[in-house]
Amino acid sequence: MNMSFKRHFLAVVIIVTSVIASTSQASKKPPEPAENWTSVVRSSPYWSSQGVYQNITTIRRWVLKESGYCSKPDRHILFDMRGQFLGYIDDGSDREATQVRLNDTRASLAATGRADDWTPGGPDRTGYPFALSCRQPHVNLDEAVARYLGTLPSELIWGAWDDLSFASQEAPQPLHEALMYIYGLREQQQRLDLPASLPKYLGGQVLIESSGQQRAHSAANAKGILQLSPSALKDCRIKPANHWHRLAQIDCALKLMDQNARNLRPPFEARFGHLPDDKGDQLFTLLLVQAYHGGASRVQSLLEDETLSKPAIYFAQEHERFSAGDIAFGMVFHNLGRDRFGLASLYYVADVQLATEALCKTARLADTRFCQ
After folding, report:
1. Alpha-carbon dihedral sign for residues 26, 32, 38, 39
2. What is the pLDDT of residues 191-247, one digit of tens each?
3. Tens digit of pLDDT for each residue in 271-327?
4. pTM of the predicted model, to two decimals?
5. What's the pLDDT tens digit per position in 86-114?
6. DSSP code for 191
7. Which of 12, 116, 242, 261 is the most exposed place for a label (fewest CB within 10 A)?
8. Phi/psi at 87 (nearest 5 deg)?
9. End-to-end distance of the chain based on CA atoms, in angstroms?
10. What are phi and psi of 201, to 5 degrees?
11. For strand 75-79 and strand 130-133, is the pairing parallel, antiparallel, or unpaired?
12. Integer angstrom CA distances of residue 8 from 5, 16, 131
């Protein structure tokens, strides 16, 4: 056998063997599904949260930017407990067909070893690996940033609220300047004690909550640029005629943030007070964003409750192995299914992070203190 023929023969053998192995692997019977998705969560080690913040943020970026695997809206993407992308499906002709495809893909991922476990999903049942639809309501970040920065003259604002007086009818200014004005004044008045990065994240929340639209109104009756609930508006003593007042909305949101910070600071310091200052401030800020979305008492339970605080105890001891974002997400991830914690809790914080990044990529804000 000459060398040329021998090399060709070996190449064919390798290709055929590879195809057979691939076919065999693809046809492997999947393992028995887990009892339910929460059993997968409970059995996952805490170290699996390494990288989860960046992974989930990447997935949400595809949704918000309609990019990557969400460049086509009629898709679902699948990911694991670490937020790692595992695959996608094109949606079926209806919900039932899509669910069948998702469950077949889940079983296949487990059979080929790409997923450690799986469980089928249904109309009222979460499946694992987790699935996220690319087709869902989301903010157009480019439009929201333009509105926030007042790129269009129609988006510039002015007005007065309480002891606040911002810009003038003759010289209106962007919403961003209003936020910084109110934050600066309240801080000067010693009415706020918040992390230095909080204004940046509040700006991101304006984008995600309402796209900066003054008359944003949700089905749950949340109103305005920061989607304040009826109870929050009442706590801030904002009368119905002023519910959409943008200065009032910002002032109220800062007041609520400060209240949450005062309530969360003692248990946070008890649990994470030994973290380096920058890392501790970043983690505390992310927890404040989480508290704005889901309530301070639920975040407090992640720090103090006998059961829900177990992940926090671990992350506090092993903090050097995790980013601040990984810790914030890990505390929720390992409590999914408890106390109404769901993936939406993580999606919200990831979306706000992406909004802050979009703001800080603009020439207007990139080199300012706001983005440091």
Report:
1. negative
2. 999 999 999 999 999 999 999 999 999 988 999 999 999 999 999 999 999 999 999
3. 999 999 999 999 999 999 999 999 999 999 999 999 999 999 999 999 999 999 999
4. 0.90
5. 999 999 999 999 999 999 999 999 999 99
6. -
7. 12
8. 165, 180
9. 69
10. -70, -30
11. antiparallel
12. 5, 12, 44
Amino acid found at 5: F
Q: How far apart are CA 103 and CA 238, in angstroms?
A: 48
DSSP label at residue 124: T
**Separation between Cα atoms, residue 316 and residue 312, nearest integer Å:** 6
Q: Are 209 and 225 in contact (CB under 8 A)?
A: yes
Residue 236 CB contacts under 8 Å (≥ 6 apart), including other chains: 228, 248, 251, 252, 255, 256
Q: Which of 193, 341, 348, 190 is nearest to 257 (CA)?
A: 193
246-272 helix and 175-188 helix, angle to the nearest 10 degrees: 60
Question: SS3 of 37, please?
Answer: helix
Q: Residue 176 and residue 265: Cα distance in Å, rounded?
A: 27
The torsion angle over the Cα atoms of residues 210, 214, 219 and 221, rounded to 10 degrees, is 120
Question: What residues contact 211, with CB distance under 8 A and at least 6 apart?
Answer: 139, 140, 143, 144, 147
> CA-to-CA distance for 73 and 48, rounded, in angstroms?
29
pLDDT band at 27 (very low <50, low <70, confident <90, very high): low
Q: Within 10 A of 119 (CB to CB), how many other CB atoms are there?
A: 22
Contact 151, 365 (CB under 8 A): no
Look at residue 197 and give its three-state secondary structure: coil
Estimate to the nearest angstrom the gap between the alpha carbon of 137 and the chain centroid. 14
Cβ contact 87:109 at 8 Å: yes
How far, in Å, CA of 197 to CA of 191, rounded?
17
Whether a cis peptide bond, with omega within 30° of 0, leads into 129 is yes
| DSSP reduced 3-state for 165 | strand
Q: How far apart are CA 252 and CA 181, in angstroms?
A: 14
Helix axes 324-333 and 343-360, enclosed angle (nearest 10): 160
> What is the Rg, in whole angstroms, of the alpha carbon atoms belonging to the chain?
24
Residue 131: which H helix or E strand, with range?
strand 130-133
The one-letter amino acid code at 51 reads G
Separation CA 159–CA 248 (nearest Å) = 10
DSSP-derived 3-state class of residue 356:
helix
Structure tokens at 102: 């998702």
